[in-house]
Amino acid sequence: MAQPVVTEWRAESVRFTFFFDEKDRGRFNSNLWNAITGAEPQSTTNVHATGVKHDQGMFLGGQLNVATAATRVDVILSAVFGGLDFPNLGAVDDISAEFGKLVIAAAADQLEHASRIAYGIIATRLSTDRNESYSVLDELLSNVKVSPDSKEFLYQVNLPRDSHTDKSVMLNRLGRWSALVMKQVSADDLTSKGSEIHSVRVELDINTAQGSSLLNVDKEKLLTELINEGNLMLVNGDK
Question: Do 142 and 67 form a contact (C-beta atoms < 8 A)?
Fold first, then answer.
């Protein structure tokens, strides 16, 4: 079984997170949802106990949620579940490039003052059956042996490295790999055998490590590096 190419991976969700030091708390665009989409959110929720504001609405075929707090901003685009299929925003490389450009352009204030930045993606790669899912995982994960006879497989690893944008910045590269199956069953007979869809699923979180100063770093270039690193991990696994 050959390793998957990046175009075979479909995005379930894409996330950008910006962290701030206490001295810079609140120094961000409170209308970030509007800046990204060019429109008003469909709903806004303010949680007064925590000081968190949630702006939500449909965008790019998914649900866009922007959560702003005193020292953190999360921008999350999630696919809407529907039918017998895994949630799907489209091909990972397409949606991460399109959405990434919009976020980078709209989040200049966040990037300027951010002390840490992170990019996360949840992606699935469809398989013909369970054996193919485990064969793909075996190709992708060089540090473990994945047997086709395995069940309930879950593997998580962080492979940190220096940033190519600035060697003084350390990147955490966290990946959580698994095999999933979605089954369709009858509401009248939960033991009946229905249609099944198999996939390999990975949750990636690529972020600048605590202790790495971003003071004089080109943060737009760095965020683009995080996106590109995510695509590489989908192709190279833990290698």
Answer: no
- Phi-psi category of 26—alpha, beta or left, where left has phi over 0 and alpha has psi -120 to 50? left
Domain boundaries, the chain: 6-232
Rounded CA separation 206/122 (Å): 12
Between CA 124 and CA 198 the distance in angstroms is 9
DSSP lists the bridge partners of residue 57 as 64
Give me 99's structure tokens.
């959405």
3-state secondary structure of 13: strand
Question: 39 in helix, strand or coil?
Answer: coil
| Distance (Å, whole) CA 88 – CA 91 | 8
Place of tokens 């193919």: 132
Dihedral of CA 35/113/104/10: which sign?
A: negative
C-alpha distances out from residue 139 to 1, 44, 92, 210, Å: 7, 44, 20, 31
The CA–CA distances, whole Å, from 108 to 47, 69, 112 equal: 25, 17, 6
Contact 179, 200 (CB under 8 A): yes
Which 3 state secondary structure label does DSSP give 188?
Answer: coil
Reported as a single tens digit per residue, the pLDDT across 51-105 is 789 999 999 999 999 998 888 999 999 999 877 788 999 999 999 999 999 999 9
Indicate the burial class of 12 (C-beta count within 10 angstroms; 0-12, 13-18, 19 or more).
buried
d(CA 105, CA 111): 10
CA distances to 26, 160, 228 from 170, in Å: 25, 7, 16
